[in-house]
Amino acid sequence: MGQRGLEILNLNIDELLQMLNEALCEEWLAYYQYWIGARMMEGPMRSEIEPELLLHANQELNHAVMVVERIIQLGGKPVLTPADWMKLSKCAYEVPDDPYVEAILTQNLNGERCAINRYKMIADFTSGKDHTTHQMATTILNEELEHEQDIEDWISDIERMKDDWKKLRLS
């Protein structure tokens, strides 16, 4: 980032870089959680949900690209080793040891809600102080909100399907 670009920032750059590096770690973990969960998943609607989870994984990877580019623009150093991802992430990585579709979706929903909090925090921190990071954070936040809605809809559809099966068995 150019000198004037840095001069107009009205915030603590070190604090912002810390938040961005934490977000970077969270994006890598979210990418892997989506990617491996999609491949491990079993149960109803798997064939419809799996490609969407892989799309979400690719979007998380794109978020990581945007965040690392911003860290570098701000003169920071991005996290350089996967060994630090779990240390710096404030979002949990949930191992997909239960491959049932609802369990995988619930894990991803938890991750999305954490990401929503992360990007709201970054957007609030940069609002009116760093327009470029603010725009990036709100762009990512909007995608995370879409992911949350997708997952909630799938969980609702599965619940509805299970209720219908119960009604059929009782009749």
Structure description:
The chain has 171 residues and is an all-alpha fold. The chain has helices spanning 3-7, 13-40, 46-73, 85-88, 101-126, 131-170. The N and C termini lie far apart (67 Å). The model has no long low-confidence stretch (mean pLDDT 94).
| Structural Rg | 18 Å
**Which residue ranges are poorly predicted, with pLDDT under 50 across at least 5 consecutive positions?**
none
> What is the averaged pLDDT score?
94
Characterize the biggest β-sheet.
none
Strand residue percentage? under 5%
Shape: elongated
Q: Would you report the number of β strands?
A: 0
Distance between the termini: 67 Å
Helix and strand sequence: HHHHHH
Number of helices: 6
Oligomeric category:
single chain
- Strand pairing plus helix content: what structural class? mainly alpha
Query: Fraction of residues in helices?
Result: over 70%
List keywords for this structure.
mainly alpha, single chain, 171 residues
Sequence-ordered SSE layout with sheet pairings:
Elements: H1 3-7, H2 13-40, H3 46-73, H4 85-88, H5 101-126, H6 131-170
Brief digest:
The chain is an all-alpha fold and 171 residues long. The protein has 6 helices and no strands.
